[in-house]
């Protein structure tokens, strides 16, 4: 089996590539950086430039499934200029992929899975969102995801199955939100944001990568939520991170106005509340390796925790 991945060198893409190679699945990947082009047995890079609609059609050779992860990070200040980058990076990559597929024989391709985001769901402390929800959050993020998904829907004209995975808060030690949340906790400056009651629908990075491959393996179609089965509020999440890192929490919650002064409109990401269901993909047979946030964080920081415990034991023995 050979999979074409856009965004393969990013946080989630790297984990998907790792799982693919564990399962002897070959990976073709697209990159805008010619210095990142590698060509070895099961990992082959191809150049593209979505801003001008350029793509190396050789990237489709031998491919039976496509995973689209491309898109500029939303974790940068939302200036008017950067907002355009966030939106265009998602739209242009999909249009370039579609243009490429129109020029080849796509009969061997059976599945197309694209990342999306739970940011499409309205901010709410009380709602429990499933994939059937039709309301869209009235924020910049909601606007982006709605446009993103419209572009994904355009792939339904092809004969292969098309699915969207709405990704939640990705838990990884190598990037994303968790290291940023852990950083102040490590330096005894950790605290919940705002009321701390806002829901955070999280997922361990390995489970998320497994979900992308699960959708391909089972040739599923439609929208699925890329979140774990047990969302937690912000206060609980911060508490669990501190517990695993063995650090105290004693500061008051960080007020929203303070973060808005620092981060601008992007601070919305810290206070938006989306409690999202994973039931649909579970009903298809997906089983989570990390269903609970405490176990997920422990796994992510396992080596560090073991080293700390070992050092602590040594000190006690010495005393």
UniProtKB/TrEMBL annotation:
Chain ranges of the DUF1731 domain: 254-300
Signal peptide location: none
Similarity comment: Belongs to the NAD(P)-dependent epimerase/dehydratase family. SDR39U1 subfamily.
Limits of the NAD-dependent epimerase/dehydratase domain: 3-225
The protein's name in its UniProt record: TIGR01777 family protein
PANTHER family named in the record: EPIMERASE FAMILY PROTEIN SDR39U1, SUGAR NUCLEOTIDE EPIMERASE RELATED
Naturally occurring in which organism (per UniProt): Maribacter algarum
InterPro entries: DUF1731, Epimerase_deHydtase, NAD(P)-bd_dom_sf, SDR39U1
Pfam families documented for this protein: DUF1731, Epimerase
Entry superkingdom: Bacteria
